[in-house]
Write a structure and sequence with these properties.
The protein is built from seven helices and 16 strands. With about 300 residues, the chain is α+β, with helices and mostly antiparallel strands.
């Protein structure tokens, strides 16, 4: 029953309005997902040699300064933190694996919810509008955003269980539907070295994509493999460094609609989430076909 929205701006002049344009899209999906909401926004690329981490903690008063100061002392690197709600953006020139290992060893209570050059992930329990405002996304500038509103059906309502789920550098996945073989896949992926924070079936889909990408598969190849290996009913929207991808299962019983103009590409679970966008009356609008991969990438 969850709601998915995605907006990719082809026209650079619209990028200062990304947050403003995206907010009504995710709010329109409130009745499909009142339990929790999340947004992956692509903006403010870091310098070459740096990595940007999205971190989360359940305590809004958590002292994030212990993270950057601890990293600088332990790894002899540069690190800065920026608190946004109960999340934090960490930018560092340390090796990504070193940072992940250090956080696990010294601050296991901190969750890594995303990493890369551009991606920032914010997610929390509560209504989409409240979550959006909590992370000050109204005025966000950026190139594209992926959002999700969740109505939990197979696991607990928690911040950790909210979407999006990270799948690799600057990659994330949101999901409407349910996977019937996620328990078996989870055990198989654990044997491959993948780790899980929740019992959420979407996290299994994300981990599957991570596993495929680590094997050297392209994103399209990973999605093609997923059509064969992921059983269930689903629509996936996958955020990438410079765009997004959409795919539905072979039966395609979960709602999805795509729309495109010269200025933007949008996807949503229902058209009402797209109808407010400028130029939507003249957009090309269609329902994505079953087991067909749609991708948009590269900024104008």
């Amino acid at each position: 029953m969850c709601g998915i929205v995605g907006l990719y701006l082809k026209n650079k002049k619209l990028q200062p309005k990304l947050g403003q344009m995206f907010k009504p899209m995710i709010i329109e999906m409130t009745n499909r997902g009142p339990d929790s909401a999340g947004v992956a926004i692509y903006r403010n690329p870091v310098k070459k040699g740096q990595v940007k981490f999205s971190l989360a903690h359940d305590d809004a008063s958590y002292d994030w300064k212990k993270i950057d100061l601890g990293l600088e002392r332990s790894l002899k690197c540069d690190a800065t933190v920026k608190k946004i709600g109960n999340h934090c953006l960490l930018v560092t020139n340390a090796k990504e694996k070193s940072v992940v290992d250090w956080l696990k060893a010294h601050h296991p209570e901190v969750r890594i919810v995303g990493s890369g050059q551009m991606i920032e992930i914010f997610k929390e329990v509560g209504l989409p509008e409240a979550v959006y405002e909590k992370f000050h996304l109204d005025d966000a500038r950026g190139t594209h955003a992926i959002g999700h509103t969740r109505m939990a059906t197979e696991s607990a309502v928690t911040t950790a269980g909210s979407h999006p789920f990270a799948t690799g550098a600057d990659l994330c996945l949101v999901h409407n539907g349910s996977l019937s073989n996620h328990n078996r896949l989870r055990e198989n992926l654990k044997r491959e070295g993948l780790e899980f924070q929740t019992e959420n079936d979407t996290e299994v889909a994300a981990a599957y994509m991570t596993w495929k990408l680590r094997q050297g598969r392209t994103l399209r190849e990973a999605l093609e493999d997923g059509i064969k290996d992921l059983d269930g009913f689903y629509t996936f929207c996958i955020g990438t460094h410079d765009g997004f991808a959409v795919v539905r299962d072979p039966i395609a019983c979960k709602h999805a609609v795509l729309a495109e103009t010269d200025d933007w590409v949008a996807m949503a679970t229902e058209y009402r989430a797209i109808s407010h966008l400028p130029g939507s009356d003249d957009a090309r609008i269609w329902e994505p076909e079953p087991q067909t991969i749609y991708t948009w990438e590269g900024h104008a």
